[in-house]
Specification:
single chain, mainly alpha
């Protein structure tokens, strides 16, 4: 007598298949690391652009770049 093999594998309804929502709600450490690095680079570039504007403002007397 051979034992019956039951197919108990069910699709995981909690895991999104793709798109932005799957990136926002992920618990995958690799995706979280990519989001962390991307966010850090974004704010690093934003801070650099703001620093350039401040230097441009202070480069000349009566600078009116940021007013």
């Amino acid at each position: 007598m051979t034992p019956e093999v039951l197919d108990t594998e069910e699709p995981d309804s909690h895991e999104a298949t793709g798109g932005l929502w799957s990136w926002i709600t992920t618990v995958d450490h690799k995706r979280i690391g990519l989001m962390y690095g991307g966010t850090a680079m974004f704010f690093f570039l934003l801070g650099g652009i703001e620093a350039l504007f401040i230097r441009l403002q202070l480069a000349v007397p009566d600078g009116t770049v940021l007013t």
